[in-house]
Structures are given as C-alpha cells and as structure tokens.
Amino acid sequence: MNxxxxxxxxxxTTLGTAGLAVADKDSYALDxxxxxxxxxxxxxxxxxxxxxxxxxxxxxxxxxxxxASWERIMANLSDHFGDNAELPATETTDIRNYLLNNAAGRxxxxxxxxxxxxxxxxxxxxRITETPYFIRKHDEIKPKMVKDNPEVRSxxxxxxxHTRAADASYNEHEVKIPGYGRWED
Length: 185
Known about the structure:
Strand order of the largest sheet: 1-2
Shape: elongated
Structural class: mainly alpha
Oligomer: single chain
Number of domains: 2
C-alpha cells in the first residue's frame, strides 16, 4: 500500500468515527429529551433575576411561560404592567437569556411541557394567569377568594396561596388561601 492510500484510509476512518460519535451524541440528546422529565418545575435561581425582578413581585419560575412570552415581556420593560422596569442593557440581556433558556419548551420538566402543549394554539401571552393551563387549574377558585381578598388581591401573587411557590412546588395539597384555609379540590 502506498502512502496516499494509507492516508486516505486513516482520514476516512477518522471522519467516519467522528461522524458516528456526533450522530450518537445527537441521538442521545433526543432520547434524553423524550425521557421522563427530571423535575416538575425548576426553581428560579438566577441571582440577578431574583434581585431585580423579585424586588417588585414574586420571581416567577421561567418554565411557567414559553420563550415567546418572556421575549415580549423583556422587550417592553419601559411599560412593565404599568411600571417602568428598565434595567441597564447588560442586566437586561443577562436576565432575558436566563428566562429564554429556561422557558417552557426549553427545559425537560413536566409542568413547562404541559404549559407549552396547552399554549401552542394561541398567541404568546404576557401573563402566566392568561395561559390555558393556569386558567384550567384555577377555574374553581371564586373571585372573592382571590381578587376580593385583601391578603391575596390577584391571581398573579402565586406565593400568597401556594405555600411552597418559591421552591417551585405548586402541589394543590400545599395551597392555603388566606382567610379560607387549605384548598380542598
């Protein structure tokens, strides 16, 4: 065998092996995504997000909205639900990236998958309380228990009733509505 043939065989073997390794890795990633979700919902743990957003309201877990919704919210911080929540560009980019990378449809957690599945047919919403999943899960809660309740005031105050919301736990057995007690479905 001459040197050119030997080099050609080495190159072919190397490229073939590398191609198989990449293909196998991609297949594994897809298999992992289809696998049983590792968590119900990931906690909000990004320091800048918790500091900036959590200083005004509950720091919602990014998986509670699809990426398109977070993009709309972050693109309009000068009128953030009636308030100016503008941040320096670097902080805005950092928080936006965190929200988008951890949004429903981008993490392997069961609740975000349900939220995304239920939201596919509609335009991106600006509020978690507007998602079909949220509406369905809260349809039995009477307005007097939330909106007319001075200790709650709004469905957007997850942590007012969900006792472990900060830990990303929205188990209905952990719901305690102020003035009404434990929620029994």
